[in-house]
Amino acid sequence: MPKRILEGVVVSDKGDKTIVVKVERTILHPVLKKTVRRSKKYHAHDEANAHKEGEKVKIVECAPKSKLKTWEVLPKSAS
């Protein structure tokens, strides 16, 4: 099964080797039939501490690295 890849914006880089990425998606409201934006935050592993707040990054699923981290940042060359 292929790994999921999500794209989002870094909202926090305060943790050591950890960033928080906000991913937005659009859904169609079931009753109103209107497009609604939904967002979710993911903790991602950033080995080199290379990414800063406000940057757009791609994250990919991985084996759990800690209690909250099950995603890791794709290297800039791969994205």
TrEMBL record:
Belongs to the universal ribosomal protein uS17 family. This is Small ribosomal subunit protein uS17. InterPro entries: NA-bd_OB-fold, Ribosomal_uS17, Ribosomal_uS17_bact/chlr. It comes from the Bacteria. One of the primary rRNA binding proteins, it binds specifically to the 5'-end of 16S ribosomal RNA. One of its GO terms (cellular component) is ribosome. Keywords: Ribonucleoprotein, Ribosomal protein, RNA-binding, rRNA-binding. The keyword Disulfide bond does not apply. Gene3D superfamilies: Nucleic acid-binding proteins (2.40.50.140). Part of the 30S ribosomal subunit. It comes from Caulobacter ginsengisoli. The keyword Transmembrane helix does not apply.
